[in-house]
Structure prediction request, 1590 residues.
Amino acid sequence: MMKRLLITGAGGNLGRQMRARLGDLAEIVRLADRGNMEPAGENEEVVTCDLGDAEAVSKMVEGCDAIVHFGGQPVEAPWSVVKNANIDGMYNLYEACRIHGCNRVVFASSNHAVGFFRQDEVIDNTIYPKPDGLYGVSKVFGEMIASMYFHKFGIETASVRIGSCFPEPSNHRALSTWLSFDDLERLIRRCLDVPKLGCPVIYGNSANTANFWDNSKVAWLGWKPQDNAEDYRAEVDAAREKPAADAPDVVYQGGGFTADGIHQE
Amino acid sequence: MMKRLLITGAGGNLGRQMRARLGDLAEIVRLADRGNMEPAGENEEVVTCDLGDAEAVSKMVEGCDAIVHFGGQPVEAPWSVVKNANIDGMYNLYEACRIHGCNRVVFASSNHAVGFFRQDEVIDNTIYPKPDGLYGVSKVFGEMIASMYFHKFGIETASVRIGSCFPEPSNHRALSTWLSFDDLERLIRRCLDVPKLGCPVIYGNSANTANFWDNSKVAWLGWKPQDNAEDYRAEVDAAREKPAADAPDVVYQGGGFTADGIHQE
Amino acid sequence: MMKRLLITGAGGNLGRQMRARLGDLAEIVRLADRGNMEPAGENEEVVTCDLGDAEAVSKMVEGCDAIVHFGGQPVEAPWSVVKNANIDGMYNLYEACRIHGCNRVVFASSNHAVGFFRQDEVIDNTIYPKPDGLYGVSKVFGEMIASMYFHKFGIETASVRIGSCFPEPSNHRALSTWLSFDDLERLIRRCLDVPKLGCPVIYGNSANTANFWDNSKVAWLGWKPQDNAEDYRAEVDAAREKPAADAPDVVYQGGGFTADGIHQE
Amino acid sequence: MMKRLLITGAGGNLGRQMRARLGDLAEIVRLADRGNMEPAGENEEVVTCDLGDAEAVSKMVEGCDAIVHFGGQPVEAPWSVVKNANIDGMYNLYEACRIHGCNRVVFASSNHAVGFFRQDEVIDNTIYPKPDGLYGVSKVFGEMIASMYFHKFGIETASVRIGSCFPEPSNHRALSTWLSFDDLERLIRRCLDVPKLGCPVIYGNSANTANFWDNSKVAWLGWKPQDNAEDYRAEVDAAREKPAADAPDVVYQGGGFTADGIHQE
Amino acid sequence: MMKRLLITGAGGNLGRQMRARLGDLAEIVRLADRGNMEPAGENEEVVTCDLGDAEAVSKMVEGCDAIVHFGGQPVEAPWSVVKNANIDGMYNLYEACRIHGCNRVVFASSNHAVGFFRQDEVIDNTIYPKPDGLYGVSKVFGEMIASMYFHKFGIETASVRIGSCFPEPSNHRALSTWLSFDDLERLIRRCLDVPKLGCPVIYGNSANTANFWDNSKVAWLGWKPQDNAEDYRAEVDAAREKPAADAPDVVYQGGGFTADGIHQE
Amino acid sequence: MMKRLLITGAGGNLGRQMRARLGDLAEIVRLADRGNMEPAGENEEVVTCDLGDAEAVSKMVEGCDAIVHFGGQPVEAPWSVVKNANIDGMYNLYEACRIHGCNRVVFASSNHAVGFFRQDEVIDNTIYPKPDGLYGVSKVFGEMIASMYFHKFGIETASVRIGSCFPEPSNHRALSTWLSFDDLERLIRRCLDVPKLGCPVIYGNSANTANFWDNSKVAWLGWKPQDNAEDYRAEVDAAREKPAADAPDVVYQGGGFTADGIHQE
Prediction:
């Protein structure tokens, strides 16, 4: 059991879910976010931190054995926002890891790092990325920071290109990209448990029947998702009109993000 | 013949060389740098511009048909320096291209985007990058910006991962990575001439006998380098002690950069 | 729900099976064959059509939203027979689709398009075909017509290389190639339901333990077969002598077809 | 030296050229075409033959040791024309080979068998074809007939996907696809000389600097083209306006054929 | 049912297990070992044989229809020991097979034939081996003997690179490499039953969630392991300290063997 | 310049050639063979050594900085001969290297390590071997010993799969497999000069127009052969009858070796 686990973005969608599930992994779970979080429970610490603030990030990381990094800007946004949270934020986080000797990170990368691949292409984790916006570019940047700090300093990171992580798949694209909370939890536990993690890129979706992501090259990790978005197809069909054949949600892996312009300040 | 060609980094090593060679490509060649440049000659314009200054970049790009982008921080440096020139700088440049309708760029990326590959691995342009420092990470960031603006807005970029572009190969690693000025010139001409460029990644080295970069997937472009670093092997052997088998210059494609720490401000 | 679905070859083995199962997919199911069919039931239309007769094919296709194309010559035969049904027939069908705006087809291609691959080779849908007779050649021709009409006119086709589609696997080779009627039905439903089909080639066999066909590149489609020929191994072993090691049924994916000569008129 | 070599399409562009060059390969060269040919010279026989006429084809092939098959419809045409010459014609030719024991063929396939690949894709001879019209489909059909007669009966064929075989490259696309007459001659000689030919697919272009076809998998054959369309780039640039970036001649390997409709009778 | 099946190494771990399970495969099961074995039961023959003794091996093989070859030195040992049992032994065995017409062998190769691959690499059966000691080298030698006797004389062998075949996975590495006795039995039965075996290399582990071996290229064989080491993870975690990140058991597929020196006589 | 270079097999075909050429590489060249050699010249030492004699091999290696290992049985032979020279011999050689700290070897492996690949297959150095006899198996064994001593002890070896190394190509197969003495010399010099060699497999043939070996993955080494067997084709055609299509010399890369039986004592 590790001494202190840091969960960033602890006030967000995934952060709240995983906070409720991962408490047994460490003597103390440090929870960080820029904004509101539930007050600290037993064995918890709560820290407010802007990822763009190097000093604050350094303090946040100090004393932690591992990090589950959900923090950062989670969707497309103007450049200054993306840059502060996901560019400066990643640099600050890994500098803090390097300085304080924190050597393992689960990094919430995103399918938007490869959003311009088509949905009828099956890709694995060796492909050259095709980000679908500033947000997607910032996620590739994050993966590259992780790669560089691994090769240079041995800090291990699992870059998880999360698909659609919600209670249920809510549209037709999510029938392929859905990641259940249970499967995410199992993945994080595996990444934190494995003696040697290295720096793998992992697609974060459940065992969906419809699937354009190939995780066969990380089979060694020992994570097999258990849930399947297909169980919700009838519900989605009932709730949503079938998208047109040329809708971005049908053409590209990144869905609607690919059709977005550059967000202005 | 195009109306106006922009060469950034015109005061630097490659910028000065190409300024002297590419004058016939446009009615006017606009030369930009943050620092000193030779005064404008015939058919030339000279512009001073900090790439981190969005407004200045916008003015620099306005009216240009194509860009040869040598500008930016050319070696490892503290984060704020790399970020200003190569992160903000790339965002600013492509926003300016998008706004002013400049649709073709030759971008000086770098072998340091893949510097942690070993020298006994032959890699092509489909591999997932392994940058060897903040500078290398910033070059992958630049490639990703280019990729995204291509898929979203049709702006075409050749990302040239330049090896060692000097008058002659000056050390043993450069016997593999050397790019002659003549071969660089031919490459830029090809990239600006081809009716449809797309967004290829191209390794920038000459036809060196010793070679760990495979450009076979961009054979369609019609660039065949003509020079060969091997012609200088005896000179290099005479001038330089043979490096040790575990020297970074021998082990990794990125050479000494891989052994560098994080440069502090 | 589509207005009118055409099932060709409706009097044949697969046509009869799918007629009984797919009635809910359209307001009207038009059934076509050259020969005898059961009379039209509710919501059914019955059309007699020789695929080699362009005019008749045009009328057959007119008004249809999608086609399940089982029609054509289903086994090796003399050239004039294969040509009429599978060469002229495919040209006529796609011309009719183009003219009448029918944009989705499920085409019953065949494992005999790749029959000369060995059974100890696992092939996916990117391989260059190796047909095992005139019939197999005609099936590749059909796939090529489909490919061309897709790239030129946007007509989408799933070319399903059907293995052995019978109630049960009836010989040792079929333990690998068997496709259950239930799995075929599921596949057709998926191909007709997916918003964007494109022009994939799909191997048509069930989830057989023994398997030389790799559908991983069409995982995005969301079809997972459920049945397994292995459940019938004991039966097959009991009913049939084990074939010799050099029997075509054991050596080649196409089985006995590979040993056939050219059928003469 | 073989006894009798058959050159079909002897009255066409390539047939006339090769007739003038290959006379030393056999005691007698039989020349066949549907239309006009120069009268027979020394050691020559002249035969008129419609490829769609099985009996005539049988007579044409009888007594020949090898065939250089340039015959057939050489560009897009209505279905009945393509079918007669390239579909029936190929069946007739290989039946005649089988019956009369002619075991080696050099078949003029075409780049239009793969015309819908993009010009910025480098393809080798293992790819699944993407024909760009009825003509292209008929050429894949011909390759499949060749493949089947090889695997079933041991008749060996080199399917040469000829690019643009003219005295000089006459447009920008041909700077990639050009095949000089000299290189074609060398290729045919190699295919007829090699003791074991098998059934390879070979891209038929010269050693052009700009090139999207990869023949590395037939390096064993021992054919290295010597000419280079690049030598004509200045001429082409002078004679022809640079095509637009979205012109079919720039986008697709098959050039303008991809933009054609279906030719009607 | 075959007449006589030979199981070598019948006194060892796997030999004893399979002796108890495979009795129904032949009228007589001949059991061989250098050392002690249980006395012959019904339908059994017991033979003592040193594999390095050509004459004894010849007698052992005579009259057998198939061989399950567990015999030989099973772990690292001094050269003379490895050579006698696994080098001379394999030569003797296949010479005996050739002379006596025994045409099918299941050969217990070992994961130590590829022990220097890292555990975070997923390898299939086409890779060039990386043995981790004299024992591993001898196993590649055995595979090569099998390959050569197959191509030259048609003797078929399944080379099974057995992982960790014990009642339960007993350490963390075995959570990936474990092969249950049941899965081994099923594999042997399949290899002896299939009409045409050829000469495949098969990784011998169960359907473990954590897995670095890819058997997809032998899917045609029809062996699907059923057991999963993951079911024992909690037990292993409880019984064993988690290994360090740089422990050979964590870094390399061959585990501790990679850290061994050369055993001296 | 190294102190002492050992050339084994110095009395054989390649050994004599390279003895005459490599004298400048070391202060002393030690020449070893089992049989007759020319007396030691200036800067030479001559040693008689049976490779199967561990003690003799140890003495032979002691004091050497690098080894060019041509020694061993050079063609098919009875098992005891192959075993003594190429099995025991390789073990003895690498044990001596390990004990005496000799860390670089150029090992004359052979095309017979892959002799059962067909001549119409182009293979690179990653393929799983297919040896064509006991000799070929022994050469794979040698490569494996080299691989193991590299991964375990850091001893670097270039395993050169030599084709046909003679003054001129003397038959049709050699038009593909010929390696000129000049090209071999250049290769050995490169392998001994490069600061970090690792453990590559290299195909040893010249820049032959007809070629089934792909060295692209060792391009980093900086060896480009200069000679071309094609220059001798007319001579070979004149001197030798063209082999039949099913002659082993035409079918398999290993040529006639594949048709050999097992040599008996």
